[in-house]
Amino acid sequence: MKVIGLLSNLGKDKIAPLVNDINAWLDDRGVTLILDDETAGKIDRQSTGCTRREMVKKVECLIVLGGDGSLLSSARLAAPVGVPVFGVNLGRLGFLTEVDIPHLYGALEQLLTGKYTIVERMMLEACVIRGGQTYAPVSGLNDAVITKGGFARLIIFDAVVDGQHFNSYHADGVIIATPTGSTAYSLSAGGPLVAPDLDLMLVTPICPHALWARPLVISADSQVRITLLSDQGEVMLTMDGQHGMPLQYGDTVRIRKADHRAKFIKLNNRTFFDILRDKLKEGDGINV
Asked: Where is the catalytic site (predicted)?
């Protein structure tokens, strides 16, 4: 690789010295590092920065310094142009980041010598249909979530799968998740864990007012339509917990598999189940 992009979570400690060190290390090996405007400004290289959308069109891969949240936003940016993402963890153990700081430069050496594989993950696309007008779709790696606002009041919505009415819910909301998103909000709402290399969708109601209501697993090629039947209180559609749009009575949210897939660079032999065991230990203190 000769041209690499870098995005960083600027809220993390000591991010500027780390970016400078990575830049110097890559420069010594004849690799050009391209930074987004914000990161370039953080290390006083404003003149060399560019917008994030411009950057992903110029690079062969994208290094992301941060946690899973940073990886989610970067995947949405890089996936449409087919650029693979390499995650460097600066926080707690994540499901998406590939290496921690102590192993960073050994990992970069593997990256430059081609000792890696690329894994692909299914993504979702959601759009809002209001009064006959379809708004621009938004993609997400983890999930599309329709949920109530601050008032402690259930919302009512219809769920239709592939044109077939599935159920009318009284609930706090609903999560439509990918296999990658099965370890996120859907898991907290009682959804199943799913191996991330599968292609499918999960429909997980949030606190439904019905004892029989359970998560539903459907084909990745299915199309889900959620129509809001509540006319009181705030209701939001959010993608990956980062991009949101307020919903109104009568709005329909259409969710389907996105045309593009997220690509991640994988170096080591740590499997999904290894990470899952570590997360379980982290969560309950039990030696699994």
From this structure: 68 (proton acceptor)
